[in-house]
Design goal:
It is globular, with a radius of gyration of 20 Å. It contains 11 helices and 15 strands. Strands 14-13-12-11-7-10-9-8-15 form a 9-stranded mixed β-sheet, covered by helices on one side. A 6-stranded parallel β-sheet has the order 3-2-1-4-5-6, sandwiched between helices. By secondary structure, the chain is α/β, with parallel strands linked by helices.
Protein backbone atom coordinates (compact mmCIF):
# COMPACT_ATOMS: atom_id res chain seq x y z
CA UNK A 1 0.00 0.00 0.00
CA UNK A 2 1.28 3.46 -0.90
CA UNK A 3 2.17 5.74 1.99
CA UNK A 4 -0.33 8.45 2.86
CA UNK A 5 1.25 11.79 3.74
CA UNK A 6 -0.18 14.14 6.36
CA UNK A 7 -0.61 17.86 5.60
CA UNK A 8 -1.00 21.02 7.68
CA UNK A 9 -2.19 24.09 5.76
CA UNK A 10 -1.54 27.56 7.19
CA UNK A 11 -3.50 30.49 5.77
CA UNK A 12 -7.10 29.85 4.72
CA UNK A 13 -7.62 32.54 2.12
CA UNK A 14 -8.34 31.71 -1.51
CA UNK A 15 -5.07 29.91 -2.15
CA UNK A 16 -5.13 28.06 1.14
CA UNK A 17 -8.56 26.70 0.27
CA UNK A 18 -7.34 25.64 -3.19
CA UNK A 19 -4.47 23.75 -1.61
CA UNK A 20 -6.59 22.17 1.12
CA UNK A 21 -9.19 20.93 -1.37
CA UNK A 22 -6.56 19.54 -3.76
CA UNK A 23 -4.75 17.69 -0.97
CA UNK A 24 -8.03 16.31 0.37
CA UNK A 25 -9.14 15.09 -3.06
CA UNK A 26 -5.91 13.16 -3.57
CA UNK A 27 -5.89 9.77 -1.75
CA UNK A 28 -2.13 10.06 -1.16
CA UNK A 29 -2.70 12.82 1.40
CA UNK A 30 -4.56 13.39 4.65
CA UNK A 31 -5.30 16.95 5.73
CA UNK A 32 -4.71 16.92 9.48
CA UNK A 33 -4.81 20.63 10.25
CA UNK A 34 -6.04 24.01 9.04
CA UNK A 35 -4.63 27.18 10.56
CA UNK A 36 -5.59 30.81 10.18
CA UNK A 37 -5.33 33.86 12.41
CA UNK A 38 -9.10 34.06 11.92
CA UNK A 39 -10.22 30.78 13.47
CA UNK A 40 -13.66 31.00 11.86
CA UNK A 41 -12.14 30.65 8.37
CA UNK A 42 -10.36 27.43 9.32
CA UNK A 43 -13.40 26.04 11.13
CA UNK A 44 -15.75 26.88 8.26
CA UNK A 45 -13.63 25.01 5.70
CA UNK A 46 -12.74 22.02 7.90
CA UNK A 47 -15.93 20.00 7.13
CA UNK A 48 -15.08 20.16 3.42
CA UNK A 49 -11.72 18.44 3.90
CA UNK A 50 -12.41 15.70 6.42
CA UNK A 51 -12.82 17.76 9.60
CA UNK A 52 -9.14 18.20 10.49
CA UNK A 53 -8.01 20.11 13.57
CA UNK A 54 -8.52 23.89 13.27
CA UNK A 55 -6.50 26.53 15.06
CA UNK A 56 -4.81 29.92 14.99
CA UNK A 57 -1.20 29.22 16.08
CA UNK A 58 0.89 27.75 13.25
CA UNK A 59 3.86 26.73 15.39
CA UNK A 60 1.71 25.16 18.09
CA UNK A 61 -0.25 23.13 15.55
CA UNK A 62 2.88 22.11 13.65
CA UNK A 63 4.62 20.84 16.78
CA UNK A 64 1.50 18.98 17.88
CA UNK A 65 0.60 17.40 14.52
CA UNK A 66 4.12 16.85 13.14
CA UNK A 67 2.88 16.84 9.52
CA UNK A 68 4.80 15.32 6.64
CA UNK A 69 3.97 18.41 4.58
CA UNK A 70 3.86 21.94 5.94
CA UNK A 71 1.97 24.08 3.42
CA UNK A 72 1.59 27.80 3.98
CA UNK A 73 -0.41 30.25 1.87
CA UNK A 74 0.23 33.39 3.86
CA UNK A 75 1.25 36.94 2.97
CA UNK A 76 4.85 37.24 1.72
CA UNK A 77 6.23 39.19 4.69
CA UNK A 78 6.46 36.10 6.94
CA UNK A 79 8.16 33.59 4.61
CA UNK A 80 11.22 32.93 6.77
CA UNK A 81 9.13 32.66 9.93
CA UNK A 82 7.00 29.92 8.35
CA UNK A 83 10.04 28.07 6.98
CA UNK A 84 11.56 27.99 10.46
CA UNK A 85 8.37 26.41 11.81
CA UNK A 86 8.43 23.76 9.09
CA UNK A 87 12.04 22.93 9.97
CA UNK A 88 11.30 22.84 13.69
CA UNK A 89 8.38 20.42 13.35
CA UNK A 90 10.36 18.01 11.15
CA UNK A 91 8.32 18.33 7.96
CA UNK A 92 9.58 16.31 5.01
CA UNK A 93 8.33 18.78 2.42
CA UNK A 94 7.49 22.47 2.53
CA UNK A 95 5.01 23.96 0.02
CA UNK A 96 4.42 27.68 -0.23
CA UNK A 97 3.27 30.51 -2.46
CA UNK A 98 5.36 32.74 -4.68
CA UNK A 99 7.35 34.93 -4.44
CA UNK A 100 10.11 33.03 -2.64
CA UNK A 101 10.83 36.13 -0.53
CA UNK A 102 10.68 39.92 -0.62
CA UNK A 103 14.48 40.29 -0.66
CA UNK A 104 17.55 38.34 -1.70
CA UNK A 105 18.75 38.48 1.92
CA UNK A 106 15.69 36.55 3.10
CA UNK A 107 15.74 34.21 0.09
CA UNK A 108 19.33 33.25 0.89
CA UNK A 109 18.45 32.51 4.51
CA UNK A 110 15.60 30.27 3.35
CA UNK A 111 17.88 28.54 0.83
CA UNK A 112 20.58 27.89 3.41
CA UNK A 113 18.14 26.61 6.04
CA UNK A 114 16.44 24.17 3.67
CA UNK A 115 19.80 22.90 2.43
CA UNK A 116 21.17 22.47 5.95
CA UNK A 117 18.14 20.46 7.06
CA UNK A 118 17.77 18.64 3.71
CA UNK A 119 14.08 19.50 3.42
CA UNK A 120 12.28 19.33 0.10
CA UNK A 121 10.40 22.49 -0.89
CA UNK A 122 7.97 23.46 -3.63
CA UNK A 123 6.91 26.94 -4.76
CA UNK A 124 3.49 27.37 -6.35
CA UNK A 125 4.25 28.13 -10.00
CA UNK A 126 1.38 25.87 -10.98
CA UNK A 127 0.40 27.72 -14.18
CA UNK A 128 2.88 25.49 -15.98
CA UNK A 129 0.40 22.61 -15.67
CA UNK A 130 -2.03 24.41 -17.98
CA UNK A 131 -2.40 22.70 -21.35
CA UNK A 132 -1.73 25.99 -23.18
CA UNK A 133 1.53 26.57 -21.28
CA UNK A 134 2.59 23.00 -22.00
CA UNK A 135 1.76 23.35 -25.68
CA UNK A 136 4.19 26.25 -26.03
CA UNK A 137 6.86 24.21 -24.22
CA UNK A 138 6.21 21.33 -26.62
CA UNK A 139 6.61 23.56 -29.67
CA UNK A 140 9.74 25.26 -28.33
CA UNK A 141 11.35 21.93 -27.42
CA UNK A 142 10.49 20.30 -30.75
CA UNK A 143 12.84 22.46 -32.80
CA UNK A 144 9.95 23.87 -34.83
CA UNK A 145 11.03 27.43 -33.99
CA UNK A 146 14.60 26.92 -35.13
CA UNK A 147 17.26 28.44 -32.90
CA UNK A 148 15.52 30.18 -30.01
CA UNK A 149 17.06 33.60 -29.45
CA UNK A 150 14.54 35.73 -27.50
CA UNK A 151 11.85 35.22 -24.87
CA UNK A 152 9.58 38.05 -23.74
CA UNK A 153 7.20 38.04 -20.78
CA UNK A 154 4.74 40.74 -19.71
CA UNK A 155 2.06 41.15 -17.05
CA UNK A 156 -0.10 44.12 -16.08
CA UNK A 157 -0.05 42.95 -12.46
CA UNK A 158 2.76 44.31 -10.31
CA UNK A 159 6.22 42.92 -9.76
CA UNK A 160 5.93 40.84 -6.58
CA UNK A 161 2.65 39.34 -7.75
CA UNK A 162 3.65 38.39 -11.28
CA UNK A 163 7.40 38.47 -12.00
CA UNK A 164 8.02 35.20 -10.17
CA UNK A 165 5.60 33.43 -12.51
CA UNK A 166 6.99 35.07 -15.64
CA UNK A 167 10.61 34.20 -14.91
CA UNK A 168 9.77 30.64 -13.88
CA UNK A 169 8.12 29.85 -17.21
CA UNK A 170 10.69 31.83 -19.18
CA UNK A 171 13.42 29.66 -17.65
CA UNK A 172 11.37 26.52 -18.35
CA UNK A 173 10.97 27.45 -22.01
CA UNK A 174 14.74 28.13 -22.13
CA UNK A 175 15.62 24.68 -20.73
CA UNK A 176 16.73 26.25 -17.43
CA UNK A 177 19.80 27.94 -18.87
CA UNK A 178 21.57 29.98 -16.21
CA UNK A 179 21.13 33.75 -16.17
CA UNK A 180 24.44 35.65 -16.19
CA UNK A 181 23.27 39.26 -15.74
CA UNK A 182 20.18 41.44 -15.53
CA UNK A 183 19.42 45.14 -15.94
CA UNK A 184 16.22 47.13 -15.36
CA UNK A 185 14.45 50.46 -14.93
CA UNK A 186 11.49 51.14 -12.65
CA UNK A 187 8.85 53.84 -12.20
CA UNK A 188 6.07 54.70 -9.76
CA UNK A 189 5.90 54.41 -5.97
CA UNK A 190 2.21 53.59 -5.46
CA UNK A 191 2.59 49.83 -4.99
CA UNK A 192 5.58 50.10 -2.67
CA UNK A 193 3.04 50.31 0.17
CA UNK A 194 1.30 47.10 -0.95
CA UNK A 195 1.90 43.89 1.01
CA UNK A 196 3.42 42.60 -2.27
CA UNK A 197 5.65 45.70 -2.27
CA UNK A 198 6.70 46.64 -5.81
CA UNK A 199 7.47 49.51 -8.14
CA UNK A 200 4.40 50.39 -10.23
CA UNK A 201 6.29 49.41 -13.38
CA UNK A 202 9.50 47.56 -14.08
CA UNK A 203 11.04 46.71 -17.44
CA UNK A 204 14.17 44.61 -17.61
CA UNK A 205 16.64 42.61 -19.64
CA UNK A 206 18.00 39.17 -18.72
CA UNK A 207 20.99 37.61 -20.44
CA UNK A 208 21.18 33.81 -20.35
CA UNK A 209 24.36 31.75 -20.65
CA UNK A 210 23.12 30.01 -23.80
CA UNK A 211 22.81 33.35 -25.62
CA UNK A 212 19.05 33.71 -25.28
CA UNK A 213 17.90 37.21 -24.35
CA UNK A 214 14.95 37.72 -22.03
CA UNK A 215 12.81 40.86 -21.82
CA UNK A 216 10.35 41.28 -18.95
CA UNK A 217 7.74 43.87 -17.96
CA UNK A 218 5.34 44.01 -15.03
CA UNK A 219 2.96 46.72 -13.90
CA UNK A 220 1.26 49.83 -15.20
CA UNK A 221 3.57 50.34 -18.17
CA UNK A 222 3.28 46.75 -19.38
CA UNK A 223 1.22 46.29 -22.56
CA UNK A 224 -2.45 45.40 -22.54
CA UNK A 225 -3.51 42.07 -24.04
CA UNK A 226 -6.89 43.22 -25.41
CA UNK A 227 -7.98 39.71 -26.37
CA UNK A 228 -7.93 38.78 -22.66
CA UNK A 229 -10.81 40.12 -20.56
CA UNK A 230 -9.65 39.27 -17.03
CA UNK A 231 -7.16 41.92 -15.88
CA UNK A 232 -5.06 39.52 -13.80
CA UNK A 233 -4.92 37.18 -16.81
CA UNK A 234 -3.33 39.73 -19.19
CA UNK A 235 0.01 37.92 -19.06
CA UNK A 236 1.90 36.82 -22.15
CA UNK A 237 5.10 34.83 -22.67
CA UNK A 238 6.48 34.68 -26.22
CA UNK A 239 9.29 32.46 -27.49
CA UNK A 240 11.02 33.63 -30.69
CA UNK A 241 13.26 31.53 -32.90
CA UNK A 242 14.87 31.82 -36.28
CA UNK A 243 11.95 30.01 -37.92
CA UNK A 244 8.91 31.14 -35.96
CA UNK A 245 7.39 32.00 -32.60
CA UNK A 246 5.04 30.54 -30.00
CA UNK A 247 3.29 32.33 -27.17
CA UNK A 248 0.91 31.71 -24.29
CA UNK A 249 -1.56 34.05 -22.62
CA UNK A 250 -2.63 33.12 -19.11
CA UNK A 251 -6.31 33.60 -19.94
CA UNK A 252 -6.11 33.63 -23.73
CA UNK A 253 -4.83 30.29 -24.99
CA UNK A 254 -1.78 29.83 -27.19
CA UNK A 255 -0.71 30.60 -30.76
CA UNK A 256 2.30 29.95 -32.95
CA UNK A 257 3.73 30.38 -36.41
CA UNK A 258 6.34 27.90 -37.59
CA UNK A 259 8.10 27.43 -40.91
CA UNK A 260 6.59 24.00 -41.48
CA UNK A 261 3.27 24.32 -39.71
CA UNK A 262 2.06 27.81 -40.52
CA UNK A 263 -0.29 29.50 -38.07
CA UNK A 264 -1.61 27.41 -35.20
CA UNK A 265 -3.62 28.28 -32.10
CA UNK A 266 -5.59 26.70 -29.30
CA UNK A 267 -7.61 27.51 -26.18
CA UNK A 268 -6.54 27.65 -22.59
CA UNK A 269 -7.00 29.63 -19.39
CA UNK A 270 -5.73 29.42 -15.84
CA UNK A 271 -7.93 26.89 -14.08
CA UNK A 272 -7.16 25.85 -10.51
CA UNK A 273 -9.43 22.81 -10.81
CA UNK A 274 -7.22 21.49 -13.62
CA UNK A 275 -3.81 22.82 -12.58
CA UNK A 276 -3.78 22.02 -8.86
CA UNK A 277 -4.29 18.21 -8.94
CA UNK A 278 -1.10 17.40 -10.90
CA UNK A 279 0.84 20.01 -8.91
CA UNK A 280 -0.21 18.23 -5.70
CA UNK A 281 0.33 14.72 -7.10
CA UNK A 282 3.90 15.56 -8.04
CA UNK A 283 4.59 16.20 -4.34
CA UNK A 284 3.68 12.58 -3.57
CA UNK A 285 5.82 11.38 -6.46
CA UNK A 286 8.85 13.28 -5.14
CA UNK A 287 8.36 12.11 -1.57
CA UNK A 288 8.10 8.55 -2.86
CA UNK A 289 11.12 8.74 -5.14
CA UNK A 290 14.13 11.06 -4.92
CA UNK A 291 14.69 10.65 -8.67
CA UNK A 292 11.38 12.39 -9.47
CA UNK A 293 11.94 15.99 -8.30
CA UNK A 294 8.96 18.29 -8.40
CA UNK A 295 8.79 20.56 -11.50
CA UNK A 296 8.19 23.53 -9.14
CA UNK A 297 10.98 22.70 -6.70
CA UNK A 298 12.53 25.44 -4.62
CA UNK A 299 15.96 25.16 -6.22
CA UNK A 300 14.59 26.44 -9.53
CA UNK A 301 12.31 29.02 -7.90
CA UNK A 302 15.31 30.37 -5.97
CA UNK A 303 17.18 31.06 -9.21
CA UNK A 304 14.16 33.00 -10.40
CA UNK A 305 14.16 34.92 -7.12
CA UNK A 306 17.81 35.84 -7.70
CA UNK A 307 16.92 37.23 -11.12
CA UNK A 308 14.10 39.25 -9.56
CA UNK A 309 16.48 40.66 -6.97
CA UNK A 310 19.02 41.53 -9.67
CA UNK A 311 16.36 43.44 -11.61
CA UNK A 312 15.44 45.45 -8.50
CA UNK A 313 19.10 46.13 -7.70
CA UNK A 314 19.70 47.42 -11.21
CA UNK A 315 16.63 49.65 -11.06
CA UNK A 316 17.84 51.08 -7.74
CA UNK A 317 21.58 51.31 -8.34
CA UNK A 318 21.97 51.40 -12.12
CA UNK A 319 23.91 49.19 -14.51
CA UNK A 320 24.09 45.47 -15.04
CA UNK A 321 23.96 43.10 -12.09
CA UNK A 322 25.91 39.86 -12.32
CA UNK A 323 24.32 36.51 -11.49
CA UNK A 324 24.35 34.48 -9.35
CA UNK A 325 24.27 36.98 -6.50
CA UNK A 326 27.08 36.75 -3.97
CA UNK A 327 25.54 38.61 -1.03
CA UNK A 328 21.99 39.32 0.08
CA UNK A 329 20.37 42.73 0.24
CA UNK A 330 16.98 44.28 0.94
CA UNK A 331 16.48 45.48 -2.63
CA UNK A 332 13.08 47.05 -2.07
CA UNK A 333 14.43 49.21 0.74
CA UNK A 334 17.20 50.51 -1.51
CA UNK A 335 14.78 51.09 -4.38
CA UNK A 336 12.29 52.91 -2.16
CA UNK A 337 15.01 55.34 -1.10
CA UNK A 338 15.94 56.18 -4.69
CA UNK A 339 12.83 55.81 -6.83
CA UNK A 340 11.55 59.22 -8.04
CA UNK A 341 8.13 60.38 -6.87
CA UNK A 342 6.75 60.86 -10.37
CA UNK A 343 3.61 58.86 -11.12
CA UNK A 344 3.90 55.95 -13.49
CA UNK A 345 2.76 56.51 -17.08
CA UNK A 346 0.45 53.64 -17.99
CA UNK A 347 0.45 51.88 -21.33
CA UNK A 348 -3.32 51.52 -21.56
CA UNK A 349 -6.51 52.83 -19.92
CA UNK A 350 -7.09 49.32 -18.50
CA UNK A 351 -4.17 49.95 -16.11
CA UNK A 352 -5.11 53.49 -15.10
CA UNK A 353 -7.42 52.82 -12.16
CA UNK A 354 -5.21 50.09 -10.65
CA UNK A 355 -2.20 52.39 -10.58
CA UNK A 356 -3.99 55.55 -9.49
CA UNK A 357 -3.53 57.47 -12.73
Amino acid sequence: MEKRYTVLIVGMGKRGKHHAAAFFNNPRFQVVGLCDIDRSRAEAFAPLVGNPQAGTDAEEMAMSLRPDIFCFCTLPNIRLQMVKIAVKCGAKLLAFEKPVALSSAEAMKIRDLLKKKNIKAVVSHQHRYGAHYQKVKEIAASGALGRIHTITATATGWFMHMMSHLISYMRWYNDYAEAVWAMAQAAGRGKLADVHSSPDYLAGVIQFANGVRGYVETGGGAPDQPEVEKWWGKNKISVYGTEGFAEVLTNGGWRAITKSGGFQSGPGAMNYDLDMPPYIQDMAEWLDDETKPHPCRFEDAYKGAEIMAALLRSAAEGGQVALPLEKGKNELRVLAARLPGRKVMVSSPVNASEYGV
